[in-house]
User: Fold Coenzyme Q-binding protein COQ10 START domain-containing protein from Agrocybe pediades.
Amino acid sequence: MDWRGRRESHGEHGQCRTRFVTASQDARPKSIMLLSTLPFRTLPSVTRCSRRTLFSLPSLPFGPDASKPQTYKDEKVFPYNEKELYAVVADVASYPSFIPFCLGSRIEPSALQRAMREKTVVDAELTVGFLSFKESYVSTVTCIPFESVHACASSSTPLFKTLSTTWKFRALSPKDHQTSTNPRSPSTLVSFDLTYQFSNPLHAGVSSTFFGQVSSMMIDAFENRCVSVYGPRQ
Assistant:
């Protein structure tokens, strides 16, 4: 019988001793032998990582109300009468020439003429672009002569779940606007309301600060358009 000596290590301090085994006892695969002679080590404990969903990441720049409709409002007194101001806003076909971020507009050619005579409801295809976004959608425009122009996206779009703008015009008397340099000149209070809701909360986070400035930009653009059409007034 074949006897062979083999040195083995046991115990915490690696104490060695020699024992003899027969060939039959040593018939285990070498891989098992090698693994069985390795000193046992305790693996370090692994801390379980907490799982987070995409929208709980703290680095995303929007809060819990990002998915709710956002509303911005601005108003200003203009030295024009309400008919003049209404005509500028009711001219939807001219929006790309002065409305910020409006890249295109398609509407019936006779829409403005009818809007100056009576209440009208007409669909317009508008294209807007800002930051890296570009969107075309159908907006239902409701015009009440010399009082208001309301435009609302007729259905949700890939970018916007809700999008609407409202312009209102109210003629002021000299008593209402005492700071006017010319009491006889017409004065009109113009109010602008913007309501929007993005379809994707990620878009809301990226654009929340940006859209907070849009209402004031719209008023400024509207004022510049009035000066261009009617000339400057005091």
Summary: The first strand starts at residue 3 and ends at 10.
